[in-house]
Every structure is written in structure tokens, then in C-alpha cells.
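Re: the pair you flagged

First of the two:
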Amino acid sequence: MKRIGIYSNDSLVLSELVEKINKDYLSLFTTIYTDKGYLDTLEQIDNVRITGISESFEDDVLIVLNDASKILDKIKEFKGKVIDFSGTVVNVNNVVHIEEPVVYCFENLLDERNPDYAVINLPAAIFGKAAVDDLLNQTRDIFSFVRNDYKVFDRMLAFNVFFLERSDELYKNYFSFLDNKLDFPFELRQLPVSTGFIIDIFGDIDFEEDDFFVKKHVYSLHDALEEEKVVVMKNGVKTTLVGDYLKIIIKQIIDEL
């Protein structure tokens, strides 16, 4: 068993990850490092300590979930293994990078042929817990006939779908991120769901069943989210992937522990 440190300022992935670590008895003790003012409402968890940024990290493994630019010098001095989902841990020898779930799916195509086109339907989770909270609050507000201010979404996402353009301010960085990763045309849509994603891929491509993907038919997004793996459904020239955004992140991290 290892001593695991986690740097995070957002509780969405963090809560699920800590629960998985504890459930699988992967950590002797877990320390959550966070900047002041974040995670103040996170409930206490057995064998988990929440603290500020230390002068040095004494853990065996350090997991980085959020932008670590401000503490990069401390991370460079860390002697253990670093598992980075933030994409900000650079010029560090002992680092393993965790792929963003949409990119991870496309990197696991069976051959090097690119799809002809893809329609990527995103969950609120791509923007963290604040976005998921917005979605829940908007849903309540609709039934209460009120409208409040929201932290992430300035439009009503609840019971809605956004057909996104590169000019959408909120999504500019995500468009740019995917443009740098994908070599084929795609469009983005925002679904009114917390963590489920749907990707329709057009072209002669395929996926192999493994620890992350399973070929089967499901009747609903809810059914797919009950699966531990990403569901792959083939229909002629279209392949549909349905899965849980958080599970892909967490499984990659757990596999590195």
C-alpha cells in the first residue's frame, strides 16, 4: 500500500477518485493538497487528510488533477511517481500523463485511419463541479419558475442541448485543445447531463474490446452509465461510444497506482 497525495481544487473527480482508492484499499493514507479557499465544504473522509500546499511532498505517489503551474518547482523536487491529469506538469522525468476522456477514446481506434467525421456530445463535467452544480440548480430553478446567476453556464442548459461553435467563449479553449489532438473534422454539442458523453463517429473504424471498451447495445444513456466500460455500438458506417467521463479518468489513474 502506498501513501498517495492528490493536488486538487475541484471536488468532482477528486471525490470519486478518493472513494475508489479507499474501496480498493490502494492507499495506506491519502493527503489532499489544495489552495486556500477551495474544498472548504468537502466532508471529512476516513484515512484522508486535507491540507494546504506543503514545502515538500512526502508521498509515494502524487496525483495532479488541477493546474499545477504555481507549484511546479515543488513537483520537480518530488522523488516519487507523478500522475498528471491537468496537463500542466512539464519537464518532470517521473510523470505519467492521463488523457482527457474524449481524446482517450479516439486514441484507442484499432488502426491509424482517421474517422471521416465525429459528433462529440459533452457532459457538464468537462468544466468541473461548478458546472455540474449549475446544471442541477438550473433544473430546480425551472420548476420553481425562477432564474438565478450561475457560475459556468450563462445559458439554460437544463432540458436543453447546445450546438456549439468555435466562437462560443466558454468552449474556445476546449475546441483548441481538440484541434491540437484530432486530425479530422468534428462538431461539439453540450448535453444537459452531469457525466455521460456520446460520440458518433462516421467512417470505417473499429474498437477492440478491452479493459475500457465493451461492444454491446444499450437502450439509454442511463444504461450505459451503469457500465464500468465505454459502450461501443456499431451501425453501418457509424460507431457510437457512450460512457462516463469521470470513470475514464479514474480508471486511467487507478491503473497507474
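Second of the two:
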Amino acid sequence: ARPDSDIDGCNVHSYRKEAGRRLARECPVEADIVVGVPESGLSAAMGYSEESGIPYEMGLVKHKYVGRTFIEPTQSMRELGVKMKLSPVQSIIKGKRIVLVDDSIVRGTTSLKIVKLLRDAGASQVHVRIASPMMRFPCHYGVDTSTLEELLCSHRTLEEACAAIGADSLGYLSPESTRDSCFGCADPCQACFTGEYPTLLYDDVNNED
């Protein structure tokens, strides 16, 4: 969603920024700069920076006409999309310990490639912080994640997920802070984090018949 959008009475930018603040409190780390993944990670990165006192920098630049990579139909297309989508700003990144903030990790394709981009640009450390909980379950409500096997965190511990994306550390926002970041305006669906779906699923309905 765009940062100027309102969803169930909650502004998207305000929500993401508050999530970033809470993420900084829950998953602190020593670093030199905070870098957001464009576009959806930028608001959370601002919040993380403000709460932690670590300067916010534009270390990644998005190419304007490339869309979201995790919804591409094949792995090879997703990997190519990451390369086409983002460019690191080497003068900002080189020699720095970086907190890389994004809104979510689905398959890990984007995170793995971005961590490598930052290291290739000279980052001394890359600490990944995600402004949502670990996505352990598929979404059945329109997002392109239909099976458990394709999700990075469905079968990995936090440490294993960190190793899989090549980061120095990895931290996620808690489900409680995800809910509370809405300032009471909405009760967001967290089925892909908790496995508690708000409706019966197709297989459940068939089993009841």
C-alpha cells in the first residue's frame, strides 16, 4: 500500500513508522546507519532510526519501473527482478555497519540479494530487521504465497533464516507490536504469522461437508 493510504482508519505511513519504532525497542543492535528497502521499508526505517538514534541514510535507490519481486511467478524471474530493482549507494554504505529495515520476508529471495548487494558495496556488517513477525504460514487471501514450503521461515529457526539470507543478525517485530502499531484503529489479519485464519479455508469447508 502507498504511504498516503488509509486502511481501516489507520494511515499506512504512520503505522509503518510506529512499527519501526517498536522494532528498534524489541531488536536493538549497534550500527552506524539505518537503511530502508524501497519503497515499503522506508517508513519503518525512519521509525527505527528515530527510536534508536542511529542515523537514517538512503543507501539503496529503487529503479522506478520495476515492481515487487516476490510476486513474480518463477525464482529466476524474482532474482533478476532484485538485480534490476535496486542499486546501492557505495559512498554511503562502504565500511558501515548497516541496519537494513524491510516490511517483510516471504521467500527470502529479495533479502538474500540485497544483503549481498550491500556487502559487495563495502558494508562491514548487515543486520536485517523486519517490521512484521516471521511469516510461517501461507496467505489464502490474495497474496502470492500458497504453500508452506516456499516460505523462508515455515521450516527454519530464526538463526537458520539469518544464515539463509547471509545476514549478521536478523530480528522481527512481535505479533503484539504489529497489532499495537495500528493505534487501536484496526485489528490486522495475522494469519500468515500465527496460523490463526479468520475464516474457514477451502479444505476445512470440504471436510465439514
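Residues 6-208 form a domain with the Rossmann fold fold (CATH 3.40.50.2020).

-B.
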